[in-house]
Amino acid sequence: MRYELFYWPTIQGRGEFVRLALEEAGAAYVDVARRAGGEARMFRMIADKKAANPPFAPPFLKSGRMVIAQVANILLYLGDRHGLAPRDAAGRFWAHQLQLTVTDFVLEAHNTHHPISNALWYRDQKPEAKKYAASFLKYRAPKYLGYFERVLAQNPAGDRCMVGRRLTYPDLSMFQIVEGMRYAFPGPMAQLEKKLPRLVALHDRVRERPRIAAYLASKRRIPFNEDGIFRHYKELQPKR
After folding, report:
1. CATH code, domain carrying 136
2. Which residues form the domain of 160?
3. Does some domain include residue 137?
4. Which end of the chain, N or C, is less surrounded by CB atoms within 10 Å?
């Protein structure tokens, strides 16, 4: 089966968490909006008044007749189908719980540049963004990343994976979080990483996996930019 992924064609954003899972699984998929007419089709699916289960917004995944939206929901589905989730129920719920926490983190990372409203341009909320980013870096990022580090340390099966002994989709998400934070806030992230040895090591292991390495070196991997979730703005960097 060939999946169809619907997401914005020029950013990594939330869709990248899904792309990483599809790439690691070696799954056949089409990044629909990156093809001619694909973005228009995406909007039609969202606006379809006859659809029984219309998605609210991208990303969403079409698998056969099913349309599955929300990153954590999509990864729950792909994880079960492609061996990227634990086999036992408790493990699957634990992986899903971690991914939902990733969702919370991603929202707060996004709010470092859009703290008031998505309907406003970044330039219209710079003062508020500067305050939010400072608080995020001082309090929230260390709390989230410290939690993920602790999850690795407390994994009964060892600290090489977030859940169990083998790679699951939360491990791929940890890779993306580290990558995104390094791009958006390189100085603060370098300081935070001194207390995150397990998380950094996990990131490095994921990066070296053959399919992930091939993806990162390909044109399928969209570069970070100032339109996505993780953005680098000079004025939001802490003063030394």
Report:
1. 1.20.1050.10
2. 89-209
3. yes
4. C
Question: Which DSSP string corresponds to the chain?
Answer: --EEEE--TT--TTHHHHHHHHHHHT--EEEGGGSTTHHHHHHHHHH-TT-SS--SSS-EEEETTEEEESHHHHHHHHHHHTT-S-SSHHHHHHHHHHHHHHHHHHHHHHTTT-SS-TTS-GGGSHHHHHHHHHHIIIIIHHHHHHHHHHHHHH-TT-TTSSSSSS--HHHHHHHHHHHHHHHH-HHHHHHHHTT-HHHHHHHHHHHHSHHHHHHHTSTTSPPP-TTSSS---GGGSPP-
Count structural domains, the chain. Answer: 1
Domain contains 225: no
Q: How many residues does the chain have?
A: 240
Tell me if 158 is assigned to some domain: yes
pLDDT by residue, tens only, the chain of 240 residues: 799 999 999 999 999 999 999 999 999 999 999 999 999 999 999 999 999 999 999 999 999 999 999 999 999 999 999 999 999 999 999 999 999 999 999 999 999 999 999 999 999 999 999 999 999 999 999 999 999 999 999 999 999 999 999 999 999 999 999 999 999 999 999 999 999 999 999 999 999 999 999 999 999 999 999 999 999 999 999 987
Q: CA-to-CA distance for 3 and 19, rounded, in angstroms?
A: 11
pTM: 0.97
Rounded Cα distance between 145 and 177, Å, is: 9
Q: Which residues pair with 6 in a beta bridge?
A: 60
